[in-house]
Amino acid sequence: MNNINNIIVGLDLGSSFVRTVIGEVLEGGKIEIIGVAQKPSFGLRNGVIVNRDSVMDCIKKSIEEAEQEAGYEVTSCYAAIGGVQIESTNNKGLVAISSHGKSPREITDDDIKKVMECANAIQIPEDKLLLHSIPQNFKIDGTVDCRNPLGNIAVRLEAEVHTVLASKTVVANIVECIERLGCEIDGIMLKTLAAANAVMLQDERELGSVLIDLGGGTTDVTVINNDAPICNVSVPVGGNLVTNDIAIVRGIPLATAEKIKLDYGCCWADALEEDCEIVIPGAGGREPEVCRRSEICFGIIEPRMREIFSLVREEIVNKVNSTLDGNIILTGGGALMPGVVQLAQDVFGTCAVRIGFPGDLGGLQEKYRRPDFATAVGLVTGSSGSHIFSRKPVKRSIKSEKSDGVLNKMWNFIKKNCF
Fold it and tell me: Which one is predicted more confidently, 89 or 284?
């Protein structure tokens, strides 16, 4: 297998699937997807590793398939994290630019660094680590708002910062599983921030938009306004609960219920093109049963999906005070279900709902231009310089040493506090 320079790999560990995306950075910084893989996930529950060996086997199979397509041996990757083990807060920091009695002076990089450190001087629980610290806004002398205060004359500088905390144990387990396979970790990113990087347009980020990742074990949400995240929440229910409902109501195994959901699932009446009959295999020696597709869709699936969106709406209303004039963007495997957009429009009371498809990055587009690949694609595209994902120079070769930039310092901090 040939080694290729300038390679970035994204690994999304989901409760239902493990997805791997390999991207190559071309001249001019453009990224082309050269390898994509998806394998069923075992050993993960609600984003948390519960069986390390099973997870390692899934990761290995996913990476190997992507390697075969890309013709590249993966030696390092970016990984995503999400679920209820994530906490986020908005904090402020304030520093003096000029001493008492002295004239105002220009704001330097050191001043910006200091005000960020001041904003991050929060009490972090012993079982948590600081995963992201993202500037939302800077204020000069208490009156002038700006995105980049560098070079402005000021007496004092204030920063509004969004911080994301992650469970040390969850991060350590992810790192251990990947590194035991002989693959290094380039960094870890909140999955919804990665997905937003892949599917959210710039005007949506400015106006205020909500990204809802409909996963198998959890439904994770990020709210971005004025081009910065202001809120991250996770609801501990997802598509697996829909499968469980079908299994309980119809008295069938989970595997059969999952197949029925994928083949016949729908959550909005107008999206049901055909109300066909479904033959449900009998369990435990029972005779097979026949029911209408509408019975499954609107008696089981639609109520649970409505509940999930209602829980998300309640969380957003309770935690977000800003006016949001952008869109609601749906990603994750649940976004593939027919009628999901119409149901979200009904629950949120707006027509501004769409499915998030990653952009055209070459390669086999039908494999990755799907809402369930948003996180994995976002890990690849975000690592090349998004303001959400800490900047890191592109690897010059697969054996090159890690950068001394912000991302490497963040990763050294994570390893120091996890192990």
Answer: 89
